[in-house]
């Protein structure tokens, strides 16, 4: 079955002047919410501090994973004059990136990518989410290692979504038992009359990410915490 390119169609509409509505998202733990299309096209000054910090720290040859409309890649390419390869599984998003001027952009799943090595691998906008499940994180991190040059870094952001679960009088949280980890959720997107299939997305609290990183031979550094349980982390391979 051909995968529906919900994001791509929406981004193309915005890019080509046909913006009439936003993407609607729904998850296994939340009701419908709006994902505004202009957010994908934000300038550096409009980005949250976590994204700005990640772009400040990016260096050398950069792989922008899940590049969306290309806002991060364009800043690195045009303002920092870095060599950037941007990848996304959405053909529509890749077309938008090309129209906006991203020089090197590919329709590509990062887990199938092994063409080059980079000084910085960038995963922003809850970029860890593409891992899908916590059980996949070892394989995910070890594949990213193969994309790093010596001394290279992975810059990624995620969120601890514990706040989304109801609390009790003792300060605890009512967390359902069916996922292996409370940060594993199912996402669905709708744009105009088209709806995506459910797909998994991972939100990891920092301690969980740090434990996974260390157990797979990475150093893990908490770079910046956001205003709402989100954070930016840097992973670097520990020589050994």
What is the structure about, briefly put?
24% of the residues lie in helices and 30% in strands. The protein has 240 residues and is an alpha/beta fold.
What are the main properties of this structure?
about 240 residues, alpha/beta, 7-stranded mixed beta sheet, 5-stranded antiparallel beta sheet, about 30% strand, globular
In words, what does this structure look like?
The protein has helices at about 5-15, 50-55, 70-80, 90-100, 135-145, 205-215; strands at about 25, 30-35, 60-65, 85-90, 105, 120-125, 150-160, 185-190, 195, 200, 220-225, 230-235. With about 240 residues, the chain is of the alpha/beta class. A seven-stranded mixed beta sheet has the order 5-4-3-6-7-12-11, with helices on both faces. Helix 3 links the parallel strand 3 and strand 4. Helix 1 packs parallel to helix 4. The model has no long low-confidence stretch (mean pLDDT about 90).
- Counted beta strands: 12
Q: Separation of termini?
A: 44 Å
Mean pLDDT: 92
> How many helical stretches?
6
Beta-strand percentage?
25-35%
The radius of gyration computed from the alpha-carbon positions, rounded to a whole number of angstroms, is: 18 Å
Please state how the strands of the largest beta sheet are arranged side by side: 5-4-3-6-7-12-11
| SS-based class | alpha/beta
Q: Rough shape?
A: globular
The major β-sheet equals: 7 strands, mixed
């Amino acid at each position: 079955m051909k995968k529906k390119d919900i994001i791509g169609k929406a981004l193309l509409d915005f890019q080509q002047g046909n913006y009439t509505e936003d993407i609607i998202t729904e998850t296994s733990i939340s009701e419908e919410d709006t994902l505004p299309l202009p957010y994908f096209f934000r300038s550096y000054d409009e980005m949250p501090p976590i994204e700005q910090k990640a772009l400040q720290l990016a260096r050398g040859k950069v792989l922008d994973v899940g590049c969306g409309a290309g806002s991060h890649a364009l800043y690195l390419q045009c303002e920092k004059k870095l060599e950037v390869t941007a990848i996304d599984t959405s053909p529509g998003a890749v077309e938008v990136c090309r129209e906006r001027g991203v020089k090197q952009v590919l329709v590509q799943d990062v887990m199938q990518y092994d063409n080059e090595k980079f000084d910085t691998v960038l995963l922003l906008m809850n970029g860890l989410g593409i891992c899908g499940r916590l059980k996949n994180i070892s394989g995910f991190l070890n594949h990213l290692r193969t994309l790093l040059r010596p001394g290279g870094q992975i810059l990624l952001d995620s969120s601890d979504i514990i706040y989304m679960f109801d609390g009790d009088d003792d300060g605890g949280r009512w967390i359902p038992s069916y996922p292996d980890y409370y940060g594993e959720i199912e996402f669905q997107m709708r744009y105009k009359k088209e709806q995506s299939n459910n797909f998994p997305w991972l939100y990891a609290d920092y301690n969980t990410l740090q434990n996974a990183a260390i157990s797979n031979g990475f150093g893990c550094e908490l770079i910046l915490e956001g205003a709402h349980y989100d954070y930016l982390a840097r992973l670097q391979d520990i020589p050994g």
